[in-house]
Amino acid sequence: xxxxxxxxxxxxxxxxxxxxxxxxxxxxxxxxxxxxxxxxxxxxxxxxxxxxxxxxxxxxxxxxxxxxxxxxxxxxxxxxxxxxxxxxxxxxxxxxxxxxxxxxxxxxxxxxxxxxxxxxxxxxxxxxxxxxxxxxxxxxxxxxxxxxxxxxxxxxxxxxxxxxxxxxxxxxxxxxxxxxxxxxxxxxxxxxxxxxxxxxxxxxxxxxxxxxxxxxxxxxxxxxxxxxxxxxxxxxxxxxxxxxxxxxx
Length: 249
What we know:
Layout: E1 12-13, E2 46-49, E3 56-59, H1 68-81, E4 83-86, H2 90-93, H3 97-105, E5 118-119, E6 126-130, H4 134-141, E7 161-170, H5 184-195, E8 210-214, E9 233-241
Parallel strand pairs: 3-4
Antiparallel strand pairs: 1-5, 2-3, 4-8, 6-9, 7-8, 7-9
């Protein structure tokens, strides 16, 4: 394991099993936050909205130096704006996987992605690596007309991920953004999500960026709009579980 970041040489563990997640009492850090956010917006931190309704880009934040009060205020901003992009996070991204896990655990118990490999010694990490995977992309487009696939992560859990982090390790210079049913109601909902550009926010990846979003109230999708033969897209995902979901009938 490289001390500063996850790399292609990191080991993967096979045949690892985890116990079922037991119910837990959750206290959302956003509820503790100072609504004026003085601990987050300090030292020249600047904010720029992606759209009027959702999405904010922050520059000047040092994630590795945030106090607990600052993390509370970051949680509040995420719940208010749904997605927060933190630019210029080289120090945080090189602080190492254990530091990143500990940071994310502040927002809730960490979720373990059950359908993919886990990095040795760091099971909450979910690694997304797209490099020279043209055959995989071609197979996907045999069944689909677009790479857009709106979804929640691990939504079947009783207490699914709420706060989600994506940290970019390598990205293309351009693209790589995170942005027919027989049942009439389902078709309406799918069309509403896919065509509702007035409540979507598209994030363009830049080097040393970290994205955090509220998985409880949003859907997300990646976009295959880059050439993986030329440049890779390599990032990690960490997610904190939150409160129990409720089904209204």
